């Protein structure tokens, strides 16, 4: 018997959440005033949870490392948010969203959680509209939708290419209302550096004030981690520079199991890297695949001519272009899920067809879309025999309205006009499906310690579909956690305020201070970034888009070696009692250096290919699916949840067997 | 390319601060401005000096964390970009670049190029929201029909990233573009109309309390705004404010 209890309610799938809500214990409003909740992170999940819990009457203390909760990295999400509204009448339903998400996740997510997510999705849109989120609308005044990868319906709501920004500002506005009422105490420029457990329960955190360097103790009856994903373990990713795994990793070290670390999403449409100085990668929204067609030249001589600057992509004739996604996956074409699209790009580039100097780029071309929209507009405007230029002009207008800010962003970075020449894109680390293990209540294996949003592992299995991260963050924060945490807190009404002058707080604070002093006094020979880049290279080369046993074993030992060197040689300038960005980075990289090794260990253990995790040893050898990823349901249909035992290599595996009662497990086919 | 950087260094809020010269070499034109700053900092760390503190996070122009006053302009010489999106191709070999923090009474310096913009948050606390609970018991999203043009205009206003370039560019250190954008977003939408009268008065009162100056229609804010927020939003806020005052 596993120590993991997912606590999924009994009963039919579609009734579980309703029944659950009808039978949980509630906290009366007067008692809520005596209960404190700490929330770490103020993105979509943390921000929405903070606002909702404060509205319910709890005293919320929210923490973010940025100078304002509005800057959390959810803000950078571009394309949209899914919801089973079926406004387009194209056959969408809760079941279909649930099904698409489980299938898209390659059958490695927990059915009951995903169904609940699909169930509350429609509510999110209602909520956001009520808050004044300016979603795109059609001329009748109704909400507009677009389509995303891995699905055959249009269920994605959007606000230009800035959907994450608008949803986060919505959650931020809800927070502001509660901050004004005094129900949320906001701690900007604060970083959580450890969780404090008292008698096995999470009772507070140790945080560093990033302006003064002061170490602070904060207590609460429950602690919620909403600190996002660990994509920056690769050094280069589409995450913000400050995005980190420290909160999640520190709770792992205090008893929270870490699940499926090897499930990472490498997003297919990012701007290719241009040099060694590069500090981060920029995403071009997946929504572009609605209208953009992905290709590389068919002929090697064209590839070489392009690289030498002798040929422009626009000069290559239609018949000499290889629209490889349309060729390989006729049913879904350019809208295959992200993992499939990324691997297909890598396959072409590995075969030598990459179109820039580094050989790591493919084209994303809007020419057909501009023509199509142009012709449509010409008809709408009643133009007979419009000139080619007029059609292009009209078509560009529509493309500009849909993706204008993305095109502008591309042009600023690459210095090329994507209306006139195809964009160059290449996959980059974007999202992490793995994370802290949680049960149906979103509670970790530590009592009173919750984890929501990207930081947990629960809903996306081995691959996340586009526009589902925003959905999950807000579902967790607005509509799931506020119920489930109440059930736990109903037992805390007699606890009273938690003191911070106890040995447990003392000890946790000492450990944090010791680590900080170590960094400041180490005076080694290399900067923090030097080690972070080293780690990133190992991760990308050996734990990237395709992985094999030999490489993963090497990765484990190499990461360990970098970690040892880091502790010997890291150089952190400045002092502990001031604003010190290098010190902040040192703590984060120290945790990435442990997480990376567990990542490789998890990837090595999972001898199958599923979703974002592709093992070269596990591919289909023949038939229509030849060369595609091969899952192994008989042996690996489980969640791997790792228990911390000191060194990452010594982590102990616990398995949560996944049961699929409402969905038949099949090989994903997007052909 | 090789560059000379003149950078504002200030140990802490109480420190007097001064401009310090640095040299960087072999800067690629494809680098972003902040990547050039990374190169400088790596150099300083390796020389045993303290790196320059500056705010930054998403590095794709949306979080609003980065600031910097570069050669006398908020976010530097390019238009429609934040500092993190500014590329070195805007400069040439041998240039001297002056880098200062955003300067305004309501944005006190914390360290080097880092300023405290929490005054913006406090203005939002005063009214930057619609008073609806997050219970989810709202009406269906399509029950509120919104004119596409109004929705688009609200979206344009809502694009503000709260970076503070408008304040830094204004000779009066006015925050009216920032406040006007938020007031406009809600004033343009039926959901926001309900409390429009109180909202504009409360937000303007807080803005004044924070020590921001008034608008004298110079328009520098609109020019320097990385998101192209239009001056129309200030006009709309003024209209909203006057009609709120008349209503009382």
From TrEMBL, chain A:
Query: Can you tell which superkingdom this protein's organism belongs to?
Result: Bacteria
This enzyme's EC code(s):
1.3.5.1
Q: Which GO terms describe its molecular function?
A: electron transfer activity; flavin adenine dinucleotide binding; succinate dehydrogenase (quinone) activity
Give the matching Pfam families: FAD_binding_2, Succ_DH_flav_C
Q: What UniProt keywords apply to this chain's record, in alphabetical order?
A: Cell membrane, Electron transport, FAD, Flavoprotein, Membrane, Oxidoreductase, Transport
* Transferase as UniProt keyword: no
**One GO cellular component, as annotated:** plasma membrane
Domain FAD-dependent oxidoreductase 2 FAD-binding residues, every copy: 36-470
Provide the transmembrane region boundaries: none
Q: Which SUPFAM superfamilies match?
A: FAD/NAD(P)-binding domain (SSF51905), Succinate dehydrogenase/fumarate reductase flavoprotein C-terminal domain (SSF46977), Succinate dehydrogenase/fumarate reductase flavoprotein, catalytic domain (SSF56425)
Give the active-site positions.
338 (proton acceptor)
Q: What does the record give as the reaction this protein catalyses?
A: a quinone + succinate = fumarate + a quinol
Annotated membrane topology:
Peripheral membrane protein
* Domain spans labelled Fumarate reductase/succinate dehydrogenase flavoprotein-like C-terminal: 532-670
Question: Where in the cell?
Answer: Cell membrane
Q: Which family does it belong to?
A: Belongs to the FAD-dependent oxidoreductase 2 family. FRD/SDH subfamily.
Protein name, please?
succinate dehydrogenase
UniProtKB/TrEMBL annotation, chain B:
Recall the GO molecular function terms of this protein's record.
Answer: 2 iron, 2 sulfur cluster binding; 4 iron, 4 sulfur cluster binding; electron transfer activity; metal ion binding; oxidoreductase activity
Q: Which PROSITE patterns match?
A: 2FE2S_FER_1 (PS00197), 4FE4S_FER_2 (PS51379)
- Source taxon at top rank: Bacteria
The alphabetical list of record keywords is:
2Fe-2S, 4Fe-4S, Iron, Iron-sulfur, Metal-binding, Oxidoreductase
Required cofactor(s) = [2Fe-2S] cluster; [3Fe-4S] cluster; [4Fe-4S] cluster
Its family remark reads: Belongs to the succinate dehydrogenase/fumarate reductase iron-sulfur protein family.
Q: Could you tell me what this protein is called?
A: Succinate dehydrogenase/fumarate reductase iron-sulfur subunit
Native source organism of the sequence: Arenibacter aquaticus
